[in-house]
Structures are given as structure tokens and as C-alpha cells.
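pasting for ref
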Amino acid sequence: MRSLLTLIIVGAIAFVLVGMYVAPGQPELRTWYLRNACEYLDKVSPQICAPMRKAEVGVPT
């Protein structure tokens, strides 16, 4: 049970980190995050999706 909980926590952290550091440079992934995930990630912290929004409008990060 503990290993399953650890796997879920690590997966959630990886999901957020990919959104912050990988997705801004990948147009298809960035579009998916902005369309599907940022609605929920913004409830945690608006800073998670900020790099993707800047990259979407063409502002250098």
C-alpha cells in the first residue's frame, strides 16, 4: 500500500514538473496542458502554468 501511495505522489510531482519545464518548449504538449490541465493546476498555484502561457504568446522565458 505504501509503495502505491509513493508511486501516486511521484507521478503527480512528475506531472507538475513536466508542465513547468518541458511543456513550454513543446507546442503539442503545451497545448494539451493549457487546454486540459491548467484549469486544475491553477487552483494549486498559478505559477505552474505561467511559463506555458508566456510561451504560447511568444514572450521569451
